[in-house]
Amino acid sequence: MPFLSSFKSTVFIWFLTLTSCGSEAKTEKTQEVNAQVSEETFQPKPVIVSANRMERYLPELKNKRVGVVANQTSVIFKKDGFTHLVDSLLSLNIDIKKVFAPEHGFRGKADAGEKVKDDVDTRTGLSLISLHGKTRKPSAEQLQDLDILLFDIQDVGVRFYTYIATLQLVMEACAENDLPILVLDRPNPNAHYVDGPTMEAAHTGFLGMTEIPLVYGMTIGEYATMINAEGWLEGGKKAALTVIKLNNWTHQTEYSLPIRPSPNLPSDVAIHLYPSLGLFEGTNINAGRGTEFQFQRYGASFLDSTQYSFNYTPQPNFGSKNPKEKGLRCYGKDLTDIPRMKAVSLQWLLDAYRNATDKSKVFLTNGFTKHAGTETLQQQIESGMTEEEIKETWQEDLEKFKKIRTKYLLYSE
Predict the structure, then answer these.
(1) pTM
(2) Of the N and C termini of the chain, which has fewer Cβ atoms inside 10 Å?
(3) How would you write the chain as a 3-class SS string?
């Protein structure tokens, strides 16, 4: 009996051990499967730009005479790279008659502000009509042989970045000539906030055609919808507008631009700093043009050298044939390590003004007003107001704009 009892005990222990091991194995396997499911469930889906959603817009182009507003950013992404939208459409036998090009030209190589002449694209043989040369708005004659206009340009969401002015003028031309316009949307890397001084009616122009804040927090498709519905086109006309939406994108999605949208925005850091450092365009202070770190640093020969450990010397380069302070040692700050911005910052402009050895050299008053959208900002800086005091004066206009903006958002915030 003792042996039998001992045997039963041993068998029972083996049973418990085997059962336990099986449970542990099952538990480990279950955890592994759950981990895989969890990873797949929460893995963000890739953003699909509207140009890639050809099934949505090709039917609108078939058997029609098409004009395209495009530049180097107008591409369709593939696993092994990308192809230009125009090349892709031509390969599908879409009848493209001509291409309209914004500031910097069709291939994106012209300097900021540089006049671009009409031309012929050597790659496709298509006529290139510049919208940053002798004209900025397509004429009735240029549109008369078209059935539809397709707009696809990467924006960065800053009022004085001129692609949205081109959009508005193109929409006006389409409205005036009863020509449908189809906008392919792209992510705005600065769409996660709204901030900055609001453009005043007295100062509207190509650096700001409507009374919107410096950073307006909308994709180019959302903005086109707002322009149209709010009656901001000349004479209150409405364009026959269609916007093809993005997939898998929200206003909080961090999106890295794979192609520089213009010669002097070479990186994510530059694009996120551009709303703040772009205000230096209306001053004599260099904001990195003439270096490989455009809009990631600032400096001038007339800033107090004793206040800065950083200096650099701008020289002519791609995108800046004649940079401010060319060949001069500029004293200032390196901002390449600044994290993603969530608001417009005035700290660097205030810092530069405070440390200018000759304050009369800082502002190019007319140019600064066009960039700021108001004469007030320069006056506030010169009077010694703090950043907090200045930004408080923006709030009423920002709240008004946000209420309008909400009506036209196509994506969640």
Answers:
(1) 0.88
(2) N
(3) CHHHHHHHHHHHHHHHHHHHHHHHHHHHHHHHHHHHHHHHHHCCCCCECHHHCHHHHHHHHCCCEEEEEECCCCEEEECCEEEEHHHHHHHCCCEEEEEEECCCCCCCCCCCCCCCCCEECCCCCCEEEECCCCCCCCCHHHHCCCCEEEEECCCCCECCCCHHHHHHHHHHHHHHCCCCEEEECCCCCCCCCCEEEECCHHHCECCECCCCEEECCCCHHHHHHHHHHCCCCHHHCCCCEEEECCECCCCCCCCCCCCCCCCCCCCHHHHHHHHHHHHHHHECCECCCCCCCCCCEEEECCECHHHCCEEECCCCECCECCCCCCCCCEEEEECCCCCCCCCCCCHHHHHHHHCECCHHHCECHHHHHHHHCCCHHHHHHHCCCCHHHHHHCCHHHHHHHHHHHHCCCCCCC
